[in-house]
Design goal:
Elements (H helix, E strand, L loop, with lengths): L2 E7 L5 H7 L6 H9 L4 E8 L3 E8 L2 H16 L11 E4 L1 H11 L11 H15 L8 H17 L9 H13 L6 E5 L3 H13 L3 E5 L3 H11 L2 E2 L5 H6 L3 E4 L10 H4 L6 E5 L16 E4 L1 H8 L3 H5 L2 H45 L1 H4 L4 H28 L4 H14 L2
Parallel strand pairs: 5-6, 5-8, 6-7, 8-9, 9-10
Antiparallel strand pairs: 1-3, 1-4, 2-3
Helix pairs in contact: 4-6, 4-14, 5-6, 6-14, 7-8, 7-12, 14-16, 14-17
Length: 414
Amino acid sequence: MTLIAIGLNHRSAPLGVLEQVSIGPDDLPKALSQVTSGEVINEAVILSTCNRVEIFLDAERFHDAYHDVRNALSLLSGLGPEKFLDHLYVHYDNEATEHLFQVTAGLDSAILGEHEIQGQIKNAWDVARHNGACGSLLNPIFEHAISAGRRVRTDTAIGRRTASLSQAAVNLVEEQVGTLAGKRVLLIGAGEVGKGVAQALQRTAEVSLTVCNRTESTAAAVASQLGAEVVPMSGLANAISSTDVLVSATGAPGAVVTAEMVGGATAPLLVLDLAVPRDVAADVVKCANVDLLVLSDLQNFANRGVAERQQHLAEAQAVLDEELSRYRRTLSEAELEPLVKSLYRSAEAVRVSEIERYGKHLNTLSPQQAEAVASLTSAIVSKLLHEPTARLRNSAGTPRADRLAEDVRDLFDL
């Protein structure tokens, strides 16, 4: 298996580029099909969040796979490759595995230690499996990465008192407007981020919450859980006119909130745009009585407390290193086992052949004696192979395993 991770994130690319390359939930099946349609890429998982677009894949050849991913991103985004190539990063094999584990544990997030990324990775993995883009090659690594991320959060303090993106959003809003108690809040988008914000709002203060979503049934499902009201997209402009705080987090490809919609605000209106690409048109910032905050504002706010979380970073990384070693050992054991079985089959074939060669000298043996000879020779083979195969298995997950495996193949012509 050749694991490759190709992507761009909040550190490698400007938000404007990240917005254009991002892949909405409805487009993920198409994107997976596009990436895996050639002869080079066997399996793929696509992770697209507000902070990153990453494609994890198993491929036959690295350069051809990179070419296919580049073309797929260009086709899906409508951008020429030259617009984003300088912002792409690539991780290969062990480095790609470590990157996936760090992302899942929240150690590569804009908000260090945040936990929402784990759910986003699980969702990306589920979508890939549902669409037949991910199977026996990538499934084990994603399963182990999610398990490792869960252990980091359980066994270390990296995520303790760390705001999730959703909670950080609510805290930022509260800092801007003072108490949220009694405020009228309009939430546009009832997906994972939107639902998280709604739940965080309800935990923080008694607000008058209204939910708006392209699929009204989804908005109704979220609203019913939180005692919120629902407004259809057709009524969005009217809903904005009676709102104190607007939070938008849809997966729409373009602006959902325009300057015309908010231009008539007579009371202060705080708008927080969490979407990638942005939901709120840029010229909204020119409207009177409207304050517009975007994702970078949220990231700056959330990372004020990063120093405290940095103290636990080494501890979290140590846990990840243990999990990486365990995963690599498991993978190596799985790769070595066919070699061990092949060695035993080869030795058994020699044993049987030698007994057959000396058959005329053994014809006088009784069935019980013949069985004793077979058992004795089989035991000798097992004892001779026990120590070398035990050492081979014990070396699993280390560079020594590769050397020993190659020696066994050469020595026994396997």
